[in-house]
Amino acid sequence: QVQLVESGGGLVQPGGSLRLSCAASGILFSIYTMGWYRQAPGKQRELVAGITSGGSTNYKDSVKGRFTISIDNAKNTVYLQMNSLKPEDTAVYYCNAHGKVTGLLKDYWGQGTQVTVSS
């Protein structure tokens, strides 16, 4: 059974930092592409950062240079380090695992963690 459990969200002032964690079970990072998405009220869910099984990363333009996605294989955890946070980063952040297993596309989501950037 696949489980993705996010943590680390909260309220932070503009310019502050947060580190989100996604504890994964039931999947292998060697097979799946992991990603962090976010959804603000009234907006569509959007990709913030992704990391492939080979370690390649990609970022939404507005977070480049501020956010970093990483994986700790020993802890089966994906992180999103967020620095220089802005009010427009406020959203629910979701962890995602996407991959092909035995020829079938698999897509898993965590429950989300709220990030609020406000003074």
Short description:
The chain is mostly beta strands and 119 residues long. It is built from no helices and 11 strands. A hairpin with a 4-residue loop joins β7 (67-72) and β8.
Protein described:
It is a single chain. With about 120 residues, the chain is an all-beta fold. It has strands at about 5, 10, 20-25, 35-40, 45-50, 55-60, 65-70, 75-80, 90-100, 105-110, 115. The strands form 2 sheets. Strands 2, 4, 5, 6, 9, 10 and 11 form a 7-stranded mixed beta sheet that branches. A 4-stranded antiparallel beta sheet has the order 1-3-8-7, with no helix packed on it. β5 (about 45-50) and β6 (about 55-60) form a beta hairpin. The protein starts with a strand and ends with a strand. The mean pLDDT is about 95.
Low-confidence stretches: none
Order of helices and strands: EEEEEEEEEEE
Give the structural class.
Answer: mainly beta
Mean pLDDT: 96
Query: What is the general shape?
Result: globular
Query: Using only CA atoms, what is the Rg?
Result: 14 Å
The oligomerization state is single chain
Strand content: over 45%
The number of distinct helices, counting runs of at least 4 residues, comes to 0
The percentage helix is: under 10%
End-to-end span in angstroms? 40 Å
Number of strands: 11
